[in-house]
Write a structure and sequence with these properties.
Strand content: 5-15%
Distance between the termini: 72 Å
Number of strands: 14
Helix content: 25-40%
Structural class: alpha/beta
Number of helices: 22
Strand order of the largest sheet: 5-6-14-11-12-13
Largest sheet: 6 strands, mixed
């Protein structure tokens, strides 16, 4: 790949690189002389384009930078202080398979700072594959360990093993080598992640894979299955915040603005990518299966279709929306509609995957949480690495609340933020086992039989990730709140009247916010983020029923039904005068 760095019509440096892996240890100390934000940004942008440069010694890096007009004055003076130059016409810089003289007189120049356009017959995956030839081995790693935060254990497993629980039956967690990641300072990670936003380079244009080093560092780029998910909008809820809550800093993280219309895409890209890797390793996997309340099956089916991997979906009959049902059907999944609820589907899929070589895709599998945690990292990134006071997440199977905690915690551990926001898990009152557990002081958890709720994706009475959720809430000074059917539907309607188009699960989170604001727990000056987990277009029937006032026992006080008017100008004018309060 041809890389370039210049300022306008200035000198451009072009180097051949053979890898997109991260650099070695010289970064933070070699750029300490770059005092301004612009200079550091320029360096990190250059580094992202030609990452192997950072495997050179600090002196070589600085000599290379000195040959560009952008920061030549400062770099040149700093080189003299380090040591006698080890980079010269006699000692050229090597980058990939090409060798270039490091002196400015012999460096090739070009008018534009843009990288060379890839050949017309090469796609972005081919380009990434070519650039990866001869890449040094990745220095980052991750593994499965039992989720036992209060107990020391030596039990661990490779991510290439097909395993879902520990020897004692505990859930597994993906553990990263934080010491290796800490060899790079916070400024490096911030600039690296920022440099990838909005790009089309494979696979870093994805909001998940732009954080690849923190997600699944050892996977080959060629094995990744991505639909360029993530990078979702952080919406300033100006009117809703001011008029309903007297808040000026209310935001909605719209995770439902994604390929299949829900946050589940964030985790599914990671899981299906790992399955793709395992199948290429000749692991005996027939396909991937899941139990679902709708959104998981949609995400799994789409990503499996993109990779050409069979998908098997267990759905509770007559309990999900038509929009959710049609997605796996359209994507070619084998859909089994079962006469049970989600918990019954979950029991069956676990039994089936124990007997057949079908990879289990539910949040019991901790790989999905690695992708979902990137939404938390993204929130920090969108606030210029400042931390909100509150993050409110709808909760059903409870993996997502832990994923958000994990993302924030990782940012804090690696120095990108200085604290973790307070987390709120919002549950529907008809499916509220975590809320009951919280109100009981975290004593004697009991699964329940979930009742029907418009928030169907969180209609779960026996959540798999209960222990993960409790850990996340206890370590973030967290709160659990609930919302009745009337509260969640009214919250949806009120939000929609200010320009949103919310799903019922977002309504649960908004209703929780309204309660906490009313009780004074959340203050008017706090910065709060509500996580919207799905797109409202997947739940249009609930909105139709609400605005038609067709829901039994719900007053639907914010309903806005269409007005039936005769095909007559006078009749139309009468209605307009009445509705718009116009005088005759």
């Amino acid at each position: 790949m041809i890389c370039a760095m210049s300022s306008g019509s200035a000198l451009a440096t072009r180097l051949m690189t053979t890898t997109t892996e991260l650099p070695a240890m010289h970064i933070s100390r070699s750029v300490s002389f770059l005092t301004s934000q612009q200079q550091q940004y320029s360096y990190y942008s250059f580094l992202h384009t030609c990452p192997r440069i950072a495997t050179f010694t600090p002196t070589k890096q600085l000599k290379l930078l000195a040959s560009t007009e952008r920061i030549s004055a400062m770099a040149s003076s700093h080189v003299e202080k380090l040591s006698p130059s080890s980079v010269s016409a006699e000692n050229p810089v090597e980058c990939g398979s090409s060798v270039h003289d490091a002196s400015s007189s012999s460096l090739e120049t070009q008018a534009s700072a843009s990288p060379k356009k890839r050949p017309a017959d090469e796609n972005i995956r081919d380009e990434a594959r070519r650039q990866g030839l001869g890449a040094p081995r990745c220095t980052f790693s991750a593994k499965y360990v039992p989720f036992s935060p209060f107990e020391d254990t030596e039990e661990e497993y490779s991510l290439d093993e097909i395993i879902y629980r520990s020897k004692t039956g505990a859930l597994l967690d993906v553990q990263h080598d934080l010491e290796a990641l800490k060899k790079y300072d916070a400024t490096y990670w911030k600039n690296l992640f920022d440099s990838r936003v909005g790009k089309t380079s494979w696979p870093y244009g994805s909001g998940v894979w732009s954080k690849k080093e923190w997600v699944l560092p050892q996977i080959d780029n060629d094995d990744i299955v991505s639909l360029f998910e993530g990078n979702s909008n952080l919406f300033w809820a100006e009117r809703f915040g001011k008029e309903m809550l007297q808040m000026n800093d209310l935001w909605v993280k719209q995770c439902g603005i994604s390929h299949t219309g829900s946050f589940k895409d964030l985790g599914m890209t990671v899981l299906v990518s790992q399955v793709n890797r395992l199948r290429r390793m000749k692991k005996p996997l027939l396909g991937v299966g899941c139990a679902s309340t709708g959104d998981t099956s949609a995400a799994l089916s789409a990503y499996c279709a993109a990779a050409g991997i069979p998908a098997i979906v267990f759905l509770p009959a007559n309990r999900i929306s038509i929009a959710q049902l049609v997605q796996p059907i359209a994507n070619g999944a084998l859909v089994l509609s079962l006469d049970t609820d989600f918990d019954g589907c979950m029991r069956l899929i676990r039994e089936v995957t124990a007997e057949l070589p079908i990879y289990l895709a539910n949040s019991l599998n901790s790989l999905r949480l690695e992708g979902q945690k990137t939404a938390a990292i993204e929130i920090c990134q969108q606030f210029d690495w400042e931390v909100p006071d509150w993050v409110i997440v709808p909760g059903g199977n409870l993996g997502n609340i832990y994923a958000f905690f994990k993302g924030f915690h990782m940012c804090k551990e690696l120095g990108l933020i200085d604290r973790i926001p307070r987390l709120v898990c919002a549950q529907a009152a008809n499916a509220n086992p975590l809320y009951l557990y919280y109100k009981a002081g975290w004593k004697n958890f009991k699964a329940i039989k979930a009742s029907n709720t418009f928030a169907s994706a969180i209609q779960i009475g026996d959540p798999v990730s209960i222990d993960r959720a409790v850990f996340a809430l206890q370590n973030s000074d967290g709160i659990v709140e609930e919302a009745t059917e009337e509260e969640l539907m009214d919250a949806c309607a009120q939000a929609d009247l200010t320009g949103m188009f919310t799903c019922p699960h977002t309504g649960v989170a908004l209703a929780a916010l309204i309660k906490l604001r009313k009780n004074g727990v959340i203050r008017a000056t706090d910065r709060a983020v509500v996580v919207s987990t799905a797109h409202g277009l997947k739940f249009t029937q609930s909105k139709i029923d609400y605005h038609s006032k067709a829901i039994a026992d719900l007053p639907c006080k914010f309903a806005n039904p269409p007005v039936q008017v005769a095909n007559d100008f006078g009749a139309v004018m009468d209605v307009l005068r009445r509705e718009l309060s116009l005088s005759r």
